[in-house]
Amino acid sequence: MSDPARDDIALLIGRTHRLDAADMADWDVRSDPSAVSAVRADVSRKLAEWGLTEESFITELILSELVTNAIRHAAGPIRVRLIRDRALICEVSDHSSTAPHLRQAATTDEGGRGLFLVAQFADRWGTRYTDDGKVIWTEQALAASPPPPHVRRGA
Predict the structure, then answer these.
(1) Can you give the residue ranges of the Histidine kinase/HSP90-like ATPase domain (predicted)?
(2) Domain annotation covers residue 7
(3) Is 4 within the bounds of a domain?
(4) DSSP 44
(5) Quick one: pLDDT at residue 116?
(6) Residue 93: domain span
(7) Which of 102, 112, 19, 117 is nearest to 60 (CA)?
(8) What are the residues whose beta carbons fall under 8 Å from the beta carbon of 23, sequence distance 6 or more?
(9) Residue 92: its pLDDT value, please?
(10) pLDDT score of 113 more than 60
(11) What is the Cα–Cα distance from 109 to 141, expressed in whole angstroms?
(12) How many domains, the chain?
């Protein structure tokens, strides 16, 4: 007889509404540390376009850390995706199935604080595995604001 506490758990996630293409942005990232500054610039431009300049600093920091980790520890193409919905979702995908681990860096360590910073600044974060690797995602709450112009409420 199996131990109920050790049974696998499945989580089904679904959307009740469709996202407009204008609420998503994605791009490929070169597997080179110099590409991180371009990611920050791209994110800053997209958030300004969406009217989310207040979220820019934290979002740039989060994506800088996630992209840097992907460059250092993962294989294959790296892709960044932003989704503007009820929250701002940031995703970094790569072709490695190795899970990231949150760790406590020693005060003398020069690195090792990336995921700690992500965990401090994102409301939620996690890993989703795909057929060809993984996606590290973060979620940041957005201040209550009117819906984008393409969304109509009520009838």
Answers:
(1) 30-137
(2) no
(3) no
(4) H
(5) 78
(6) 26-141
(7) 117
(8) 83, 84, 85, 148
(9) 95
(10) no
(11) 31
(12) 1
Q: pLDDT at position 53, please?
A: 93
Does 67 fall in a domain?
yes
6-17: pLDDT as tens digits: 555 555 555 556
Asked if 79 and 26 touch (Cβ cutoff 8 Å), the reply is yes
Determine the Cα–Cα distance for residues 92 and 35; give it in Å rounded to an integer. Answer: 14
Report the first-to-last Cα separation within the chain, whole angstroms: 54
Tokens of 45: 């431009």
Number of H helices, E strands in the chain: 3, 5
Q: State the average pLDDT over residues 70-89.
A: 91
Instruction: Provide the residue type at 139 as one letter.
Output: E
Query: Which residues are CB-contacts of 148 (< 8 A; sequence separation ≥ 6)?
Result: 20, 22, 23, 84
Torsion angles phi and psi, residue 29, rounded to 5: -125, 130
Which tokens is 36 given? Answer: 């991180």
Answer with the residue of higher pLDDT: 129 or 114.
129
CATH number of the domain within which 124 lies: 3.30.565.10
Q: In this predicted structure, what is the pLDDT of residue 58?
A: 95
Can you say how many angstroms the Cα of residue 34 is from the centroid of all Cα atoms in its chain? 19
Of 133 and 153, which is predicted with more confidence?
133
Reported as a single tens digit per residue, the pLDDT across 143-154 is: 865 555 554 444
